[in-house]
Amino acid sequence: MHDTEKHLKSSAFITDIVIGMSDGLTVPFALAAGLSGAVQSNSIVITAGIAEIVAGSIAMGLGGYLAGKTEQEHYATELKREYEEVVEKPEVEKQEVREALAEYGLSKHVQDIVADELAQDKDKWVHFMMKYELGLDEPDARRAQKSAANIGLSYVVGGLIPLTGYFFTKTPEEGLLVSAILTIICLFAFGYFKAKVTGQSPFKGALKVTAIGIAAAGAAYLVAKTFNHLF
Q: Which end of the chain is more exposed for a tag (fewer CB within 10 A), N or C?
């Protein structure tokens, strides 16, 4: 019977979901809470909330796209440089292979054998240098598009949750109460899941994410209330 090792899969996808959902739950919730302290109509809160979700999802998605493109361009640049270096200064590159292997405690004899063997295949040699010297894995060719979609859609899903309460209530105060209950539950559940998949304490992670969301919404509400009275 073999033990099955459990490792986190699709870390890039999970990272995108975490980024999109965390901001999607927190920012629209804070906006809705702030508006609830300043306006008397649910329709205003809903309109402003939807506008923010649209703008926020586009901005967040674009950020994910640019980050993915930057990762691809960086990898391509380093890959080109490594191919040039194994041709122009092979002995230096072979020494770098030995140094990388030495970090794993391999003997000088094994280092020499591996370096010489890798030097016979330029592609494998470069791949080794990219991974073990530079710590770079080849990014998914569609990473930028996937990241943009994952983050943008997650933001929309997260952002709609705080607005739900305003669709079924008559006043912003009532809407805020329902919104707060729904959002706090979702923040706690999301924080628990986030901590669980990243190997942290689920309960502490849930409390942390929930506290941040509540603090942001509370601050927005108090600021809106204060300025509403002043002006």
A: N
The string of pLDDT tens digits covering residues 99-138 is 878 877 778 888 888 888 878 888 888 888 888 777 777 7
Which of 95, 115, 133 is the last residue in one of the domains?
133
What does the pLDDT read at residue 229? 58
Residues 68 and 173 in one domain: yes
pLDDT exceeds cutoff 60 at 29: yes
DSSP state of 4: P
**Rounded CA gap, 45 and 166, in Å?**
8
105 and 206 assigned to the same domain: no
Whether 123 and 186 share a structural domain: no
Count of structural domains, the chain: 2
Query: Token digits for 159?
Result: 């952002």
Could you report the per-residue pLDDT of 54-80, keeping only the tens digit for each?
999 999 999 989 988 898 888 888 888
53 vs 115 pLDDT, higher one? 53
Identify whether the C-beta of residue 94 lies closer than 8 Å to the C-beta of residue 133: no
Domain extent, residue 189, equals 12-72+141-230
Integer distance in angstroms from the first to the last C-alpha of the chain? 73
Contact between 39 and 226 (Cβ < 8 Å): no
